[in-house]
Amino acid sequence: MNGESEVRYVRQGEVVGKKVVEQRGYIVGEVKDLSFKLSEDRVELALTIKYGDTERDIPWSQVKSIGDVVLLKVEYEPPVKAKPEVAKPEVTAPPLVAKPQPAPLTPKICPNCGYPNDPKNRFCIKCGTKLPE
Ligand SMILES: [Zn+2]
């Protein structure tokens, strides 16, 4: 005998989406599905819980009660905060090399046509208007 005093049928929709809280009060995930494990002579039920991208199965025997949350009677390691992207390469800070950069040259705007000419130009390369010095 398993010592359960009452038989209660739980509908899948009752538990799916509920937060799963382990013994100490940590939220370890959210119920994603009910899973079955078929052994030789019986069916074992498990909760598939999801936390971020991590999924794991919790045997039904570890479920203490189901209320507003699913309470477990065991301690689980609180999952590591879900990493949004695992494959993201490390962003290295740009090297702090003070490379003197020439001051950006402001183009000479042609007073006639508005074309941004090279500052060295004396005449607009587009319309030929004499550019201001
Ligand atoms: Zn011009």
What does the model show?
This protein has one helix spanning 12-15, and strands at 19-21, 27-38, 43-51, 54-59, 63-66, 70-72, 108-109, 116-117. With 133 residues, the protein is mainly β. Among the domains are: 13-72, Roll (SH3 type barrels); 104-133, no CATH class. The strands form two sheets. The chain has a six-stranded mixed sheet with strand order 4-3-2-1-6-5, with no helix packed on it. It has a two-stranded antiparallel sheet with strand order 7-8. Strand 1 (19-21) and strand 2 (27-38) form a beta hairpin. The model has no long low-confidence stretch (mean pLDDT 83). Zinc ion binds at residues 110, 112-113, 115, 124, 126-127, 129.
Question: What's the helix and strand layout?
Answer:
Blueprint: H1 12-15, E1 19-21, E2 27-38, E3 43-51, E4 54-59, E5 63-66, E6 70-72, E7 108-109, E8 116-117
Parallel strand pairs: 1-6
Antiparallel strand pairs: 1-2, 2-3, 3-4, 5-6, 7-8
Bound molecules: zinc ion.
Zinc ion (ZN) binds at residues 110, 112-113, 115, 124, 126-127, 129.
Based on CA inertia axes, which overall geometry fits? rod-shaped
Just name the CATH architecture of the domain at 13-72.
Roll
At the fourth CATH level, what is the homologous superfamily of the domain at 13-72?
PRC-barrel domain
Beta-strand residue percentage: 25-35%
Instruction: Return the CATH class of the domain at 13-72.
Output: Mainly Beta
CATH topology type of the domain at 13-72 = SH3 type barrels
Span from first to last CA?
99 Å
String of helices and strands: HEEEEEEEE
Strands, count: 8
Q: Poorly predicted ranges (pLDDT <50, ≥5 residues)?
A: none
Report the C-alpha radius of gyration, rounded. Answer: 33 Å
Number of helices: 1
Mean pLDDT: 83
Question: Which ligands accompany this protein?
Answer: zinc ion
Helix content: under 10%
Estimated structural class: mainly beta
Strand order of the largest sheet: 4-3-2-1-6-5
Characterize the largest beta sheet: strand count, sense, and whether it forms a barrel: 6 strands, mixed
